[in-house]
Amino acid sequence: MINIKAYVYILIFNVVLFSKFVHSYHVFNLRNPDQNLIESVTDQSNGPVTIRMFRFRHDSNVTRIMFFNEVVWTSRSYLERVLFIRLIISYDRERLMELNTINGGFHITHYFRRTTTTWRSITQRGFTNIESSIRSERILDIKGPLDHETFEYHHNQLHGLESHTFVVREPYSVHNVSDGNTFVWFGNRNLRCLGAIVHGTLQRPHLIQLNLIRANRERSRIYLRFSNGVWYHITRSAFYRTLAMLDAEEEQRRRLQNDENQ
Questions:
Q1: How many structural domains does the chain have?
Q2: Are residues 106 and 157 in the same domain?
Q3: Residue range(s) defining the domain that contains residue 70
Q4: Which sign does the torsion angle of CA 198, 204, 206, 212 carry?
Q5: CA spacing 20 to 30 A to 166: which of 32, 59, 205, 235?
Q6: Which UniProt keywords apply (predicted)?
Q7: pTM exceeds cut of 0.85
């Protein structure tokens, strides 16, 4: 019959062994990175798109990846651990993740995309297609800051209201136009914006003309007016009537200002 002291020693040994086993595996949260697990973090940016690379220490043994409270990935084998993560961020939002692991000498790559509410596993082909799209997608924000790599820009203040012309450069695609935090137009994969003319200052715009193109190369224009804190669509004739009125008001304001300065 085993004596009590020997039994206690065996129990303590198992508890210590189990504790070491449990604590040798770690959780890594993308939104709260544990610096003790990381060997290096590098960022490579191109306009609003950032590629962030997390490389883990060889002894980190990361077996679970989380995003806030969401479990994105968990190892299905006690031998599989994470080597590095490649995170693709666009306009400050995590969009794609490439997770590279090793399992008994075999390297495995897992691919994920972020939807509105959660992360989902996708194929390598799906990942590649979405990454290519993200690299070329841009948002035209008339409030700026201006991305000169994406947009050709011209400023005109010769007569009436000042105007600002934006032309989208190749190979970029614009499917959304915003005025600061307010989106004024949404496109889709078959409809994109080629450029815009903004009338008024960029901080207080009055009118916007958007030049659009469809997938079948058909071109069109839409006209927007800002009134009472809201952007809304108007007809072409209403657009130019309003522009003529605002130009006349601006010219009158300048004449009065010049008279006061003389």
A1: 2
A2: no
A3: 24-122
A4: positive
A5: 235
A6: Membrane, Transmembrane, Transmembrane helix
A7: no
